[in-house]
Every structure is written in structure tokens, then in C-alpha cells.
Specification:
Elements (H helix, E strand, L loop, with lengths): L10 E4 L2 H10 L3 E4 L2 H6 L17
Parallel strand pairs: 1-2
Length: 58
């Protein structure tokens, strides 16, 4: 997806599928997937992603 004339790489950190879909449609070169996004959308703090609350691959 990178244009040969553009020296920049566009990446985004995403935490949910909706955000990843939007960034992919925007033309991101890579995605950094985070586990904290699902917990933050449920009202938990970012530090909750360090605790073994749920399996990361569910």
C-alpha cells in the first residue's frame, strides 16, 4: 500500500475490530493490535490489561 513517492509509513495502534477496519480502509501500512482496547471500552483502566482477567485471544 505504500506509494513509492511517499517516504512515510502510516501505522496505527488499534484495540478493537471496528477501529482496525476503519484504519485499514484509510490505507494504513501496518496495524499494532493492543489488548487494552476491549477492556477500556468496558470501562476498565488500561492497567487492567496487565491482569489475567480474560484470555487475550477470545
Amino acid at each position: 500500500m505504500t506509494d513509492q513517492n511517499n517516504p512515510f509509513i502510516f501505522g496505527a495502534a488499534v484495540g478493537s475490530g471496528l477501529t482496525a477496519l476503519a484504519v485499514d480502509r484509510a490505507g494504513a501500512d501496518f496495524l499494532l493490535v493492543l489488548n487494552a482496547g476491549r477492556l477500556r471500552m468496558r470501562g476498565a483502566s488500561s492497567l487492567a490489561s496487565y491482569l489475567p482477567l480474560r484470555p487475550a485471544n477470545e
